[in-house]
Amino acid sequence: MSTLLVETRRARPADAGDIADIHDSAWRFAYRGLIPGAELEKMILRRGPAWWQTALKRGSRVMVLTFGDAVAGYANVGRNRARGLPFEGEIYELYLRPEYQGLGFGRRLFEDARKELASAGFDGLAVWALAANEPALGFYRAMGGLGVARSTETFGGRALEKLAFGWNA
Fold first, then answer.
1. Domain map (residue ranges) of the chain
2. Tens-place pLDDT, residues 115-154
3. In the CATH scheme, what is the homologous superfamily, with its name and number, of domain 6-167?
4. What is the mean pLDDT of residues 8-12?
5. For this UniProt entry, which residues form the secretion signal (predicted)?
6. Separation between Cα atoms, residue 74 and residue 128, nearest integer Å
């Protein structure tokens, strides 16, 4: 009998191709119809394997969740970029391949990303999600996030509302 192990670890430059693939499929799945098509394609194309490899070599704090030998998802974490929020850490991105969504892997990756931020000395964390991305909003609410801010971001000339969720340490 074989069992597949689920692990979360810091990403390595060799993971860049898998992370780029996850970014591509997860963004198409989550944002098609929300972000204008041409803009979405540009955003996906510029975050290919070379971009991720450079980011990892420069010290970006990226974690990958593996299921057996497969990289199923990633989280990119660091210092909160919204200085007006009372949280020191931020999960910049948390994405799973679509076939791994809804199975508990996101919860595991989120909790491990939260632990990574805490171990780096960040007190609390924030996450931003597009207001029209109902699955993401539901996930962050289920994880105990409280709505703490609203803003807009422009994609291809279209302003989209985004919401910030926060968690204390």
1. 6-167
2. 999 999 999 999 999 999 999 999 999 999 999 999 999 9
3. Gcn5-related N-acetyltransferase (GNAT) (3.40.630.30)
4. 97
5. none
6. 16
| Distances, alpha carbon 6 to alpha carbons 37, 64, 77, 114, 116, in Å | 34, 10, 20, 17, 17
Beta 89-96 vs 61-67: how paired, if at all? Answer: unpaired
Phi then psi for residue 33, to 5 deg, are: 90, -15
| SS3 call for 4 | coil
Termini Cα distance of the chain? 40
d(CA 84, CA 136) in angstroms, rounded, equals 23
> What pLDDT does residue 169 have?
73
- The two beta strands, 61-67 and 70-79, are antiparallel
Identity of residue 15: D
* Torsion-angle region of 60 (φ positive above 0: left; ψ -120 to 50: alpha; else: beta): beta
pTM confidence score: 0.95
Distances (CA, A) of 8 to 36, 50, 136: 33, 22, 20
Contact 38, 70 (CB under 8 A): no
Distances (CA, A) of 162 to 20, 49, 63, 80: 23, 27, 24, 16
